[in-house]
Amino acid sequence: MRGLRILLIVVVILGVLFVIVDRVAVHFAEGEAADKLKANEQLATTPDVDIKGFPFLTQVAGGSLDDVEVGIKEYDAATGDAGRTIRVEDLKAHMKGVEFSGDYSSATAATATGTGTVSYAELLKTAKPEPTEVAPGATARVTGLSDGGNGKIKVAVELSAPALGIKQTVSVLSSVSVVDGKVEVHADSLPSLAGAAIAEDRIRAITDFQQAIDQLPGGIKLDKVQAEPEGVEISVKGSDVRLAG
To answer: How far is the C-alpha of 34 from the C-alpha of 187, rounded, in Å?
Structure first.
């Protein structure tokens, strides 16, 4: 009995030591992965990397991690216009089946899904802020974006016709979707300006607009969008997503 008791104590101690070593190893690996991701994506701040699953060391021995989550506080995505970016906040990606090379210099996830938020102030930069002629003597411009409720965006449009003594701001409820890989804002109905006939295509050139969100980390792509109180929530996905190397 005494020998069995000693054996059990030894097993428990070894188990505790294994857990400690495993957690130290995963913490170190998360830090190394975060540093590599920061360098590869040229991020201003170090991202959060959370390697899920236990034990970590057996996953390492197999050369593949089951589940890795990455969080980036602020990411400046490309827009398709040279030198102009759009900021995505709280970008979080959930990686599955992450395989890495023997020297850990590269890592690729089989699949990835995630979310992020583009604020209304950031998306407003895409709209036309300068007054644009929509009819003889009449101009229009977008002055603000906000939550319209029920998944809609409320677009504030300033309409002006000085000769008619008219200057008014109207709110237009718009739908937001992904079209051809871009965020598209499309007015459900068009504003009217009393006394001025405005062709639909001219006013839609102001109220409707698209915004590309490109070159996201690891090659993930825009999938879906949803209007929320603080901005537009984007959903992203990808396969063979390169995390490093």
So the answer is: 41
Task: Give the integer Cα–Cα distance in Å for 63 and 78.
Answer: 33
Residue 57, CA distances (Å) to 14, 17, 105, 206 in order: 15, 13, 18, 56
| Rounded Cα gap, residues 23 and 18, in angstroms | 9
**Structure-token pair, residue 106:** 């590269």
The predicted-structure confidence for 113-160, as pLDDT tens digits, reads as follows 999 999 999 998 887 778 888 878 888 889 999 999 999 999 998 888
SS3 sequence of 56-71: HHHHHHHCEEEEEEEE
β-bridge pairing 221-228 and 182-187: unpaired
Judge if pTM exceeds 0.90: no
| Residue among 215, 245, 239 at smallest CA distance from 97 | 239
What is the helix (H) or strand (E) element at residue 155, kind and residue range? Answer: strand 152-161
